[in-house]
Design goal:
By secondary structure, the protein is of the alpha/beta class. The chain has 15 helices and 15 strands. The strands form three sheets. Strands 4-10-9-8-7-5-6 form a seven-stranded mixed beta sheet, with helices on both faces. Bound molecules: pyridoxal-5'-phosphate.
Length: 409
């Protein structure tokens, strides 16, 4: 039998090392649980970066996948298919938007939105050709294509990959005055995550999104929210911007959980006045809007709504956050969270978060550090209170001064 060590060795030999996985080989998943090849069981507290909000292999989503796979999988957009239209209608209804454009991965939705707001700037706002500017924020994460990393302030994402895409202006996250100061006659959009996930669950000051909304209206600028990670219930609202009043964006990006953890599905949602800039031939994707994606997407949305996953996220997230505050705080610099999206930032004296995640793994909890010092917690939204208590118990044991000393030794 192949051991986990042998499987890991093969991956390390033949895969580019663009990730640093925890040393565990998963071979099965169901609901909030994962099993490794030795049959050991783990509580999934990452949910594939919020792509598995509905839980692993949700029966309804898997059934939709199988049924559609048995009928039709791909036509390209050269023809209509019988699944895409009704999916778009459901999605636009849910997000209260007029139109949507379907892509596959999250970063393609980002890329599509950059193209849309630039073209809108030239066609509708009258910005001089090739001069459009987009305001972005320090420590953002919008994915890994060249244009998405061109928006980034993180050297690890950009070093050695230049020349980068021009036209982005970085400002401090959460600082409305910095945004106002960065606006020029060429500004077409501000582009942001309503909570910065990769940056370590960074939550802007309350009111920032509504302030941005007003600022954008005053200057005729589009507000683009990347809710690829925060959307679809993760933060205790269907969309994170709904935590504030009057913060609805002009352009909303969804991905990850839109595919229910089984298939890549992403979308750009906006008004006709924005997505109307695309004419036949100006943008496309062979797999975008395919019938398998649409069938899976419909089931993924139905599960979130019918199983009240947004309310669960709000209630259990509030419980989780309260309980996290009661954990031993010796190594903890700050605890941040909204809904079932939480970050435990460790003091630099405690060392990096990685050994904590490795110790949690040994104790049957899978989560992943982000930005060195932060343990990110984002379990499937179907998690139950007793499973959260199990997580808290393990965290309690790991977050003791005793482990910190051992882990740093
Ligand atoms: C994951 C993520 C992306 C990129 O999505 P991919 O499917 O990995 O391309 C973009 N923005 C945010 C906020 C994300 O969390």
């Amino acid at each position: 039998m192949t051991t986990q060590q042998q499987i890991i060795a093969a991956a390390e030999t033949y895969s580019a090392k663009n990730y640093h996985p925890l040393p565990v080989v998963i071979s099965r998943g169901e609901g909030v649980w994962l099993w490794d090849t030795d049959g050991k069981k783990y509580l999934d507290c990452l949910s594939a970066y919020s792509a598995v909000n509905q839980g692993h292999r949700h029966p309804r989503i898997i059934q939709a996948l199988i049924n559609q796979a048995n009928r039709l999988t791909l036509t390209s957009r050269a023809f209509y298919n019988d699944q895409m239209g009704s999916f778009l209608q459901q999605l636009c209804g849910l997000a209260d938007m007029e139109m949507a454009l379907l892509m596959n991965t999250g970063v393609e939705a980002v890329e599509t939105a950059v193209k849309a707001v630039r073209k809108w700037g030239y066609d509708s706002k009258g910005v001089e050709r090739n001069r459009a500017e987009i305001i972005v924020f320090n420590e953002n994460f919008h994915g890994r294509t060249l244009t998405a990393v061109s928006m980034s302030s993180e050297p690890a994402y950009t070093e050695g990959f230049g020349p980068l895409t021009p036209g982005f202006r970085l400002v401090e996250y959460g600082d409305i005055d910095a945004v106002a100061a960065a606006i020029s006659k060429d500004t077409v959009a501000v582009f942001l995550e309503p909570i910065q996930g990769e940056a370590g669950i960074k939550i802007p000051p309350y009111g920032f999104l509504a302030d941005l909304r007003r600022l954008c209206d005053r200057h005729g600028i589009l507000m683009v929210l990347d809710e690829i990670q925060t959307g679809l219930g993760r933060t205790g609202k269907m969309f994170c911007y709904q935590h504030e009043r009057d913060a609805k964006p002009d352009v909303l990006l969804l991905g990850k959980a839109l595919g229910g953890g089984v298939y890549p599905v992403s979308a750009v949602l906006a008004a006709k006045s924005v997505l109307g800039v695309f004419q036949p031939g100006t943008h496309g994707s062979t797999f975008g809007g395919n019938p398998l994606a649409a069938a899976v997407g419909k089931a993924a949305l139905a599960v979130i709504q019918e199983e009240h996953l947004v309310d669960r996220s709000a209630e259990l997230g509030a419980y989780l956050l309260r309980q996290l505050q009661d954990l031993p705080q010796i190594d903890v610099a700050e605890i941040r969270g909204q809904g079932l999206f939480a970050g435990i930032e460790l003091k630099s004296s405690a060392g990096p978060a990685r050994p904590y995640c490795e110790e949690l793994m040994r104790r049957g909890i899978l989560c992943k550090e982000t930005h060195q010092q932060v343990i990110r917690l984002a379990p499937p939204l179907i998690i139950e209170r007793k499973e959260i208590d199990h997580l808290l118990l393990q965290l309690n044991d790991v977050l003791t001064a005793r482990f910190a000393r051992a882990g740093n030794a």
